[in-house]
């Protein structure tokens, strides 16, 4: 089946990475793929725009079915290949509720992280304000503390939604790893640090680790004061 | 089953409304519910915070399972009550891909709409800039035009993801209705206008129509120039 799939992706992008983790978990290695450069604006290239009129990565196709939104692609892959690889969305109501809940809370974490990391990229220079960036940092700090509390309440060695690796981890781990890459203190956020250490060793995650992070292991310090 | 469910909600909030539409579609009338006032800050009340530490609405519980994120609640309800009411996420790969894709694109529509409608509410007065609001309006205009194109390519009378009403409509319709409520021109966005007219008559939508919109049918003109 995987030869029927095509993924255009960018290195380090959490939305791209989560689709790649889902593909690995679902044993769908061997898909067609092309690594594109955001710096060279290749996400606006004709081949991407034909799949994704938003000009965003990932752009993903299975046969003739186009599923570019990363959450959409992850849910589609789990649904279509439910019995292949581990089940990422449990059937039991209790577990399923938790997986869905944390999956979508991860979008807020991603948003608040982006509001800080991409502030200077998104806001034209003439409009940048220390007060706005400070507020974004405070919102991200509160968000990170909420996740610390969530993890604190779980048994040691748990994943985000319970004892098993789930779709909550597929979508959220790239965001956590991104925060670490941008300098999140694992001393001040020890639960997130432990979670990061646990999941980074997972084969699906290692197999899809951003190549430019491997080449340049040194990250940024954007979040060091948080 | 529905007596085991509790929903705290606010009138007109698209995230609340989509959960209510999903409950109606899944024939889960009779759930416990409480209408709260955002103006009175009741979403920060103790009863909400106990369910949802974010202090946001909706706050939703089924038995002991808490699913507050609106997309999470919708997916949970469809999964747990798949054969009750219409199937909102089709099994066929082609149809399913489209439903998931449009579901998650609707989040971008909601975000860009919020960036305009809530601009003065979110940005402190001293930081407000005409240039920033103008950019947000341009981004929303481009987004609305994209949805016009999507609908244009569908057969007349279609829903967002095909001939059948689906989860894409459950999550997106409240956002479209919100845009109309805030003055979106149905002359300049005729496809969205037709879509709005089609779906607003659906029983699940009528049954959950925001009560304060019924009391005050006159909306705002925030988007009139878009």
From TrEMBL, chains A, B:
Biological process according to GO: glutathione metabolic process; L-phenylalanine catabolic process
Record-annotated GST N-terminal domain positions: 3-85
Signal peptide from the UniProt entry: none
Matches recorded under InterPro entries: Glutathione-S-Trfase_C-like (IPR010987), Glutathione-S-Trfase_C_sf (IPR036282), Glutathione_S-Trfase (IPR040079), Glutathione_S-Trfase_N (IPR004045), GST_C (IPR004046), Thioredoxin-like_sf (IPR036249)
Residue ranges of the TM segments: none
Gene3D superfamilies named in the record: 1.20.1050.10, Glutaredoxin
Listed Pfam families: GST_C_3 (PF14497), GST_N_2 (PF13409)
GO molecular function annotations of the record: glutathione transferase activity; maleylacetoacetate isomerase activity
Cellular component GO terms held in the UniProt record: mitochondrion
Ranges of residues in domain GST C-terminal: 92-220
PANTHER family: MALEYLACETOACETATE ISOMERASE
Annotated protein name in UniProt: Glutathione S-transferase
Species: Megalops atlanticus
């Amino acid at each position: 089946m995987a030869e029927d799939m095509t993924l255009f992706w960018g290195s380090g992008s959490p939305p791209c990475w989560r689709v790649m983790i889902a593909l690995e978990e679902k044993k769908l290695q061997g898909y067609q793929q092309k690594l594109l450069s955001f710096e060279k604006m290749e996400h606006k290239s004709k081949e991407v725009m034909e799949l994704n009129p938003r000009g965003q990565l990932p752009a993903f196709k299975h046969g003739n079915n186009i599923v570019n939104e990363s959450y959409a692609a992850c849910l589609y892959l789990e649904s279509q290949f439910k019995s292949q690889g581990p089940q990422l969305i449990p059937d039991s109501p209790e577990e399923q509720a938790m997986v869905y809940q944390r999956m979508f809370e991860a979008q807020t974490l991603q948003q608040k992280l982006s509001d800080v990391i991409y502030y200077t990229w998104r806001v034209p220079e003439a409009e940048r304000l220390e007060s706005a960036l400070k507020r974004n940092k405070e919102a991200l700090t509160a968000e990170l503390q909420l996740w610390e509390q969530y993890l604190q309440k779980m048994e040691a060695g748990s994943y985000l939604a319970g004892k098993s690796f789930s779709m909550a981890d597929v979508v959220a781990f790239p965001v956590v790893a991104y925060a670490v890459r941008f300098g999140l203190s694992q001393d001040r956020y020890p639960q997130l640090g432990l979670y990061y250490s646990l999941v980074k060793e997972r084969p699906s995650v290692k197999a899809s680790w951003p190549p430019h992070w491997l080449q340049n292991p040194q990250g940024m310090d954007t979040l060091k004061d948080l």
